[in-house]
Design a protein that fits this description.
CATH superfamily: Acetylglutamate kinase-like
Shape: globular
CATH topology: Carbamate kinase
Largest sheet: 7 strands, mixed
Number of helices: 8
Strand content: 5-15%
Strand order of the largest sheet: 3-2-1-4-6-7-5
CATH class: Alpha Beta
CATH architecture: 3-Layer(aba) Sandwich
Distance between the termini: 24 Å
Number of domains: 1
């Protein structure tokens, strides 16, 4: 299968761990690379948020703040590509055209952000549409989609399935955004809707969930296109 795997910035953090989880992801991808074709999209996480916050405090324009975040995501992608060695394409794409060309090599393509204003979730959706992915896996630091933000509402319930329109209602009615509740944004959802890409949002802190998702097991929340 052709798989787009978005790995959130949590995997590059040492918080609560001696070693960032991305090291284990690279080991897993080395096992899976011969069985499936992968595009790996990396988030920026705490480092990107720190740089953006510092830049905003310096009155840096928002477009340049976005660019700082993109640099961090591409550095994270560089780490993944280097960790995968010859299994990965040696360059990090900065355009959709480059993604297409690099993916045609048959190697794993690791990438970060593309342009200001697009979250890495949107980039992952664009990548999935571009390579005609069979599955888009969004590895996050939550179990899936809830009826409201579980950090703010102890009565929030996890959903096994959710339509794009319902997900928009849940995320944006409660003023959740990519920085605070990193699931999906408007651009990503519009792309999933038009492309009908099978998508699963799941807890990426448990790497066994990646294999389970590839086997078609029920984990996290599956997004249904209307």
């Amino acid at each position: 299968m052709k798989i787009v795997l978005k790995i959130g910035g949590f995997a590059f953090s040492t918080e609560g761990r001696k070693e960032p989880l991305i090291s284990d992801y690279v080991k897993l991808l080395k096992q899976l690379a011969g069985k499936h074709r992968f595009v790996i999209v990396t988030g920026g996480g705490a480092i990107a948020r720190l740089y953006i916050r510092l830049a905003r405090n310096m009155q840096v324009p928002e477009s340049l703040c976005d660019q700082l975040g993109i640099f961090v995501t591409r550095l994270n992608a560089r780490l993944v590509a280097d960790g995968l060695s010859t299994r990965a394409y040696p360059e990090i794409p900065s355009t959709v055209a480059e993604l297409n060309r690099f993916f045609a090599s048959g190697k794993v393509v690791a990438m970060g952000g593309l342009q200001p204003g697009h979250s890495t979730n949107a980039v992952a959706a664009i990548a999935a549409e571009t390579v005609k992915a069979n599955l888009f896996l969004n590895a996050t630091n939550v179990n899936g989609v809830y009826t409201s933000d579980p950090d703010k509402n102890s009565r929030a319930k996890q959903l096994d399935e959710v339509t794009v329109s319902k997900l928009e209602e849940i995320l944006f009615k409660n003023e959740m955004n990519a920085g605070g509740y990193d699931l999906m944004d408007h651009i990503a959802l519009r792309i999933l809707q038009r492309s009908h890409i099978p998508t699963v949002i799941f807890d990426g802190r448990d790497l066994s969930n990646v294999k389970r998702a590839l086997r078609g097991e029920s984990i996290g929340t599956r997004i249904l296109t209307d």
